[in-house]
Amino acid sequence: MMPDLGKYALWVLSAYGVSIALLASITMLSILQARRTRRALQAMEEGRKPGRRDGARSEAPGTVKEAANG
Amino acid sequence: MIALLARDLRLSIRAGGGFGLALAFFLIVVTLTPFAVGPNTATLSLIAPGILWLGALLACLLSLDRIFALDWEDGALDLVATSPLPLEGAAAIKAAAHWLTTGLPLTLAAPALGVLLNLPPQGFVWLALSLALGTPALSVIGTFGAALTVGVKRGGLLMSLIVLPLYVPTLIFGAEVARRGAEAQATATPLAALAAISLACVALLPFAAAAALRVNLR
Amino acid sequence: MSIWEYANPTKFMRVTGVALPWLWALTAVCLTVGLTWGFFFTPDDFRQGSTVKIIYLHVPSALMGINAWLMMLATSLIWLIRRHHVSALAAKAAAPVGATFTLIALATGALWGQPMWGTWWEWDPRLTSFLVLFLFYLGYMALWAAIEDPDTAADLTSVLCLVGSVFAVLSRYALVFWNQGLHQGASLSLDAEENVADVFWYPLLVCIAGFVLLFVALVFLRTRTEIRARRIKALETRARISAA
Fold it and tell me: A27, A54, B76, C93: which could join A50 in a potential S-S bond, CB 3.0 to 4.6 Å?
């Protein structure tokens, strides 16, 4: 199955390796960032609807402090 | 406009204004070069035009954040913006003041430093001429970069990252004039291109700088 | 129904939300088919040997490295003229993707140049202008990251993108003047006689399509992230104001 790359195998394979690694990393990075922001926004919008009191239940330290202040 | 120019010049000459710092930096770069590449005079005279251009460019870069930062901090920039003087004019004046206190002294000092680097005798005129034509572009481009980053705290490094790529065409043509001059070749084409870049920058970039300033002052 | 309707963030979110899974699927198909075809089922070039297979990565990424900047230029202009937030955010989202493509073009170019030209790097106009383009991407991204207020950042980066474009073109011509090149001419112009042969041409087209799709999918995804981040910021501000 593997084609005969001759004496240039190292160069060709590393070119493919570097490119695919770079493409994969930018894609993974984008997906991770997207997931993180989506979760954060969801948490915020859910926390907003039931009213401020509900914030104390949340495990995020910032929210607890805010509820304590209010 | 003239009042603003005079004020900027006075401020930069006063102690701590930064006048002379760029010159000292230029001198140090030129002094360090032989330590880095060795004292062989043939090598030095080969790279002298390029090193002198690069040194002048970096010295120019160093003093850029003074253009707006101090006026931004003490609020003078807001006064300038609300004065009847158009902001484009103010940006052009700032660039002119920067050139008079940095570009012009660098141009005048470069031939003297050329002696240290064993610049071939026919190269001195071309070096001075190319710097005289090129440093205005460096000042104006730098003013634009300073206007972009004036609102950023500790923006010096960021400004270098933005401004240096913009310096590429000017450096290429300027150093090419100096190199060809030193090697006694025809210099007309790069000289014309360098002059064109400088004139276009001086004519257009104050508008971009003023636009950036307006955004930052909003 | 005009294209400006997509400038509405809600509408943009809805449409891209539906389109993204299809885009990802198409991207995966094109890239898999194109790269597999190119890597396993094309002959070696009689002069370049197997290194010709690098073309399937090098040409599309170089193409997209430039196109991403053009797209940023267009969206920056739209932001400056029509003040659509989605446009500014799309420019921000595209920059890291464009920088990655530029980096791939540089890396694959070096890996091809080493066996073929006998050097990793040559100060050739094409190579050097790509390096300069990469520097422009870095400066642009750094400016976005440094400014806190989103609208100020969008304005300033747009101005930088416009001015940078002019200087990028200037640098290109300056570099051509500065050093005669080692790089071959365009391999893709439609009318050129010296075009690449058909065996290499069709898989290359598929790869280019795959890279374009990947770019669009990534920009959509990242723009959605930016829109959400902007909304989080707005909610936080609102909470702070109501708490004060």
Answer: A54
